[in-house]
């Protein structure tokens, strides 16, 4: 069974940047999925059950915190590692994200090497 990675951001250039950062994972058999808003992300998560989700916090229709809470607390979907991405780096925001069920919290601008290492560690175990 192949591993799946979902990239969620309402800004196309950010999605593309993350895709380029992680494209070498496709050589390892990782399938990349994309969403541009929270509702679409939730739908893809329920249908595809990705192993890893890079989830932007500030998005239209449903923000990343809401998506994370739905996946982790309400739907209780197992085996989905969620990393919240946000420009808000304050500790209170990070804490709220973790309370919503996020497994990790990364601030933008992110370090591409760090993002790749984290994704590889999660997907290749």
How would the blueprint of this fold be written?
Layout: E1 4-8, H1 12-22, E2 31-35, H2 38-48, E3 52-56, H3 64-74, E4 81-86, H4 91-99, E5 104-107, H5 112-123
Parallel strand pairs: 1-2, 1-3, 3-4, 4-5
How would you sum up this structure, described in words?
- The chain is an alpha/beta fold.
- It contains 5 helices and 5 strands.
- The chain has helices at 12-22, 38-48, 64-74, 91-99, 112-123, and strands spanning 4-8, 31-35, 52-56, 81-86, 104-107.
- Strand 3, helix 3 and strand 4 form a beta-alpha-beta unit.
- Helix 2 runs parallel beside helix 3.
- It is globular, with a radius of gyration of 13 Å.
- The model has no long low-confidence stretch (mean pLDDT 94).
Brief overview:
The chain is 43% helix and 20% strand. The chain has 125 residues and is an alpha/beta fold.
Tell me the number of helical segments per DSSP (H or I, 4 or more residues long): 5
Which outline best applies?
globular
Helix residue percentage: 40-55%
Instruction: Indicate the mean pLDDT.
Output: 94
What structural category arises from helix and sheet content?
Answer: alpha/beta
The strands making up the biggest β-sheet line up spatially as: 2-1-3-4-5
**Poorly predicted runs of 5 or more residues:** none
Q: Describe the biggest sheet?
A: 5 strands, parallel
N-end to C-end Cα span: 13 Å
Report the C-alpha radius of gyration, rounded: 13 Å
Beta strands, count: 5
How large a portion of the residues is in β-strands, by DSSP E? Answer: 15-25%
H-E order: EHEHEHEHEH
């Amino acid at each position: 069974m192949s591993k799946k990675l979902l990239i969620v951001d309402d800004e196309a250039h950010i999605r593309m940047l993350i895709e380029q950062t992680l494209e070498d994972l496709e050589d390892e058999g990782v399938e990349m999925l994309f969403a541009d808003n929270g509702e679409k992300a939730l739908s893809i998560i329920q249908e595809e059950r990705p192993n890893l989700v890079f989830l932007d916090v500030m998005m239209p229709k449903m923000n990343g915190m809401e998506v994370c809470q739905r996946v982790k607390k309400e739907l209780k979907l197992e085996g989905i590692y969620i990393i919240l991405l946000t420009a808000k780096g304050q500790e209170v925001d990070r804490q709220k994200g973790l309370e919503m069920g996020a497994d990790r919290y990364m601030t933008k601008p992110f370090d591409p090497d760090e993002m790749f290492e984290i994704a590889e560690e999660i997907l290749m175990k």
